[in-house]
Predict the structure.
Amino acid sequence: MTRWTRQVLAAILVNSVYAMKNYPVVLINTVLAPLSFLLVVNFVSRGGLLVQAIEGALIMSMFSSGMGLQSDLSHLKNDFKLQDMIVASPTTAGAYVVGMALSEVTYSLPALATLAVLVGVFVRPTAIQALELVGVMLLMFSTSITIGFTLSTFTSDVIQSFAFSSIISTVFSTLPPVYYPITYIPLPFRYLAYLSPTTYAAEISQSATGQLQLPLIQVALAWVVLVAVTLTLGVVALKKARWREV
């Protein structure tokens, strides 16, 4: 096992496995948050938007997982001064962030497992559709990870981080048409939804499973925008994040 691998595993153990083992109540929030919106949308639509709601819950779960990185990194940086120790150690920023990012996914495993079962039962995707859904989820997670990491290097208190995380998660995963088709939004306001990358993720997911009929060019454009946003935020994180205090 390489040193880089050990560093990644250490981050997962410290940030998620320890908390999950000793404080299992923390898992309740990760399960309830995406499922609560799913249930509300399903009840209001009388089952008509169940598939869209399940896919939306997946998007929200992955996006929220990435944003959770901000609060955890801020807590470790400001309260335990862990980032200062990491900077002074042989551990690289890449190993630290990858390990912490994977720890957020570990936190979300109960929710993801529940949603995966719902996808298998109600969506029943083909192999290609499943790959498209997985691709969208990975892009959403990557996007939120870069946002969370960048903001964590600027925040000076974990309370401030919680506020940023809650605001961004709400703006990106609940206000846009993630749990329902974008066609439900009146046309004059529909263009505002395209300011959020989660809108493109939802369009791709809903189109892949046949819940939203879109021209092939529009689906391709959604992929291009989603990849471009992810790469752009990644460059911003590399250029602007304050890994070392000045």
Observations:
- The longest helix spans residues 50-78.
- Residues 3-240 form one domain.
